[in-house]
């Protein structure tokens, strides 16, 4: 347990993310007291601990922010560097991504330009192999990023229903059999919102380059309702149209025929693991054989992504390596390797499950990277989350020319997103002002339906020309 105090309570939550990452890797009992001073041209930190009598670590950083926003960003950055260096000294533990706690390390790297390599390696203490991964992704994205953020946008649609709820899931997703009465009002409202957003995008001079229907499992919807949603999204002229068909038990010839007829270009067929015992353990109602059957049905009709998860309960390194190798043999266009992420709402975390084998997690994701790149895949996007095993990353791998544009757009935050559905968050990106504005819908599907008039009022207010 590491007890922590800071001069500025507004920074506590951000700094605690870093402290918690050390708590995953050490049994040390420590108290840290962090103070700082803003001096002319200098930001100075002072950290004390109860581990050593009279211990004081003082750090000094050059400091000349252009405005208040940059001042806050620099102060948090310098505090993280100072805390990280202190905890490494006190515990003997280092973290794969050093003092970085943000979701989007590749975005930060790109923003820092020529300074990025040295800053990531020496200031942020990112391990060389993780820095190499970041740099490989940034290089892969060149030529694929949104060429005109002022006039090119994405459309995101959220369908929060699944056949069952996975034990690790903390997203807004609901077992569909318990929500039959909600399906029709939800999809009716959803299609209305989609059509409004499409017309709003057109009126404000946006073309759509990527449509993404996510979940949940959109293909769990009854076919007529799925068709309504697909029809509302069709005909945008987008170069990419993705539907998360992730649960193999929802993939049939009829579903695939409908997706193809409506212009879908990319789907997911997500095994998570090719180990049947694990699938049962995590609450998925299908087998590895079902995954391979669904994949065979879809092969050649769509670009396909497969998700795998490292550190699933009860899985050995051998189990995970087998899943990676099997995915590589099947050769989908994309493979996304997640590290188990246990947010407060997941059944596993509620049940007290904890993953503390950080070295195993590191070996798993390192193996996935080596095995997939050896088969011709390139890492093309990444993100990180709190409560992730080993404080590691989620990374997407692609065959040449098959990267998912939406995944890059959403993670690099350089593209306006018109977002529909419960828990959906629209984003208005204004590059000239370095500004991102957000509009969040009601999180729960029932609230989204009950308060749909308010949802639409907020959308209209957010997308009025005065805000664009």
UniProtKB/TrEMBL annotation:
Q: Which GO terms describe its biological process?
A: porphyrin-containing compound biosynthetic process
The answer to whether keyword Oxidoreductase applies is yes
The record's Gene Ontology cellular component field reads: cytoplasm
Q: Name one GO molecular function term.
A: 4 iron, 4 sulfur cluster binding
Per UniProt, residues of the Radical SAM core domain are 147-384
Q: Which SMART domains match?
A: Elp3
One Pfam family in the UniProt entry: Radical_SAM
User: What keywords are assigned to this protein?
Assistant: Oxidoreductase
Its EC number is 1.3.98.3
Q: InterPro entries attached here?
A: Coproporphyrinogen-III_oxidase (IPR034505), Elp3/MiaA/NifB-like_rSAM (IPR006638), HemZ (IPR023995), rSAM (IPR007197), rSAM_horseshoe (IPR023404), rSAM_sf (IPR058240)
Q: Which PANTHER family match?
A: COPROPORPHYRINIGEN III OXIDASE (PTHR13932), OXYGEN-INDEPENDENT COPROPORPHYRINOGEN-III OXIDASE-LIKE PROTEIN HEMZ (PTHR13932:SF1)
* Protein name in UniProt: Coproporphyrinogen dehydrogenase HemZ
Species source reads Candidatus Limadaptatus stercorigallinarum
């Amino acid at each position: 347990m590491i007890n922590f105090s800071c001069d500025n309570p507004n920074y506590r939550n951000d700094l605690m993310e870093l402290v918690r990452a050390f708590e995953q890797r050490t049994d040390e009992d420590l108290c840290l007291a962090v103070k700082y001073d803003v001096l002319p041209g200098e930001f100075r930190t002072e950290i004390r601990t109860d581990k050593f009598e009279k211990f004081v670590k003082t750090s000094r950083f050059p400091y000349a922010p252009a405005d208040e926003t940059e001042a806050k960003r620099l102060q948090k950055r310098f505090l993280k560097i100072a805390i990280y260096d202190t905890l490494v000294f006190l515990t003997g533990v280092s973290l794969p991504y050093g003092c970085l706690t943000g979701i989007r390390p590749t975005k930060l790297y790109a923003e820092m330009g020529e300074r990025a390599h040295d800053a990531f390696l020496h200031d942020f203490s990112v391990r060389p192999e993780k820095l190499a991964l970041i740099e490989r992704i940034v290089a892969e994205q060149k030529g694929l990023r949104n060429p005109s953020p002022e006039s090119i946008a994405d459309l995101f649609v959220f369908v929060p229903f699944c056949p069952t709820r996975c034990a690790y899931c903390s997203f807004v997703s609901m077992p569909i059999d318990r929500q039959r009465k909600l399906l029709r009002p939800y999809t009716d409202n959803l299609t209305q919102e989609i059509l409004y957003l499409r017309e709003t995008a057109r009126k404000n001079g946006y073309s759509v380059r990527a449509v993404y229907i996510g979940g949940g499992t959109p293909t769990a919807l009854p076919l007529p309702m799925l068709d309504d949603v697909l029809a509302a999204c069709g005909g945008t002229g987008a170069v990419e149209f993705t539907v998360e068909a992730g649960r193999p038990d929802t993939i049939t010839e009829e579903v695939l025929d409908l997706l193809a007829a409506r212009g879908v270009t990319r789907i997911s067929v997500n095994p998570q693991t090719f180990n049947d015992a694990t699938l049962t353990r995590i609450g998925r109602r299908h087998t590895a054989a079902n995954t391979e059957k669904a994949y065979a049905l879809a092969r050649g009709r769509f670009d396909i992504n497969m998700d795998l998860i490292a550190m699933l309960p009860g899985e050995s390194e051998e189990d995970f390596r087998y899943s990676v190798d099997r995915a590589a043999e099947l050769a989908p266009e994309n493979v996304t390797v997640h590290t188990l992420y246990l947010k407060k709402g997941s059944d596993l975390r509620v049940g007290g499950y904890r993953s503390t084998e950080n070295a195993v997690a590191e070996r798993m994701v390192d193996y996935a990277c080596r095995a997939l790149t050896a088969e011709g895949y390139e890492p093309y996007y990444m993100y990180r989350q709190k409560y992730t095993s080993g404080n590691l990353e989620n990374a997407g791998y692609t065959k040449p020319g098959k990267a998912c544009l939406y995944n890059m757009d959403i993670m690099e935050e350089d593209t306006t997103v018109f977002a529909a559905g419960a828990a959906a968050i629209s984003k208005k990106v204004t590059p000239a002002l370095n500004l991102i504005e957000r509009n969040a819908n009601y999180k729960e599907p029932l609230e989204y339906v009950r308060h749909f008039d308010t949802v639409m009022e907020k959308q209209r207010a957010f997308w009025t020309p005065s805000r664009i």
